[in-house]
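USER: Please consider what follows.
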Amino acid sequence: MVTIWHRAAVALTTVMLTTACGAATDLVESDPTDPPSPTGPTASTSPTDPTTPTEPPPTTPTTPAVAEPKVGECRRTNPLLSALGGSLEVRQPVPCGDTHNAQTYFVGLMNEEAQAAAAVEAYLEILARLHVEGLRVNVALKLTHLGLDIDEALALANLRRIVERAAALGNFVRIDMESSAAVDATLRTYRALREEGFDAVGTVLQSYLYRTPDDLEALLPLRPNLRLVKGAYLEPPEVAYPRKEDVDAAYARLMERSLRGEGYTAIATHDERMIDHAIAFAERDGIGRDRFEFQMLYGVRPQLQADLIARGFKVLVATPFGPEWFPFFTRRLAERPANLGFVLRNLVRG
């Protein structure tokens, strides 16, 4: 699936890409002098259409060979998973009779590493295609699609390949934030790449998590490129603000602190009051418009997007489409059903 980011009513195109492996990508930005696509968010054969990257060929399900268990080790296969081309495997030695303890060990499909590798190749192909088309497009992705659930070092190595290619092509990669359980690993991965000298990488912070102010302070010395969101995952009250007014207040504080830093801030919100607050704050503190941008969803507050563009602000708009758009959309709603009400309310506001 591919999602196009573009400037509302003007000639800036950005893209949020999701590969056939389900890997979400994010910002795709074109030069303001590029003409807007005449076809909108649909696939076409136009030579400037970035929506048809070469996808990895489908993998034919096969049942992998499973070695005999070692002494003191027990492996169990699941018929359903085997039919899908994988097997259920306890990754650490477990006494075969100890079924209770076996459930506590990491268990996964043996083909997950191959799926992560295929996602990497798909992203590399997307970056190459965007470069050939001459689009200033940057992608965002989730580390779980690059193997984070298997091994953090594997996800870092996979991401490094993508960021290296993006940097070589003059591009950019944003690491999307996932649920609170993945925050530490995501930020460690981002920090590792920044400390290795990569500038062409950014990440995301969520205002509804109590921990986020501390995370921001820890990142500011890196001069980060950060997208600020309120948070879309359903989190327990032990880790996230349950009340909207608290989330909004936390967002405003984070935005101000980030703008006062030396990095770049992507203000991802459809909240007009928050947008007005950001503009007034930036003007009062002498923060240039080259230090921040606004990000919204395609079809949500289009008139607001156009008004901001007319005032000279940079606005990026995300448009998901492609064969995997419906599963992507339903997953986001399932993660937090309140997202549906948000979308429906804002679709009619203009």
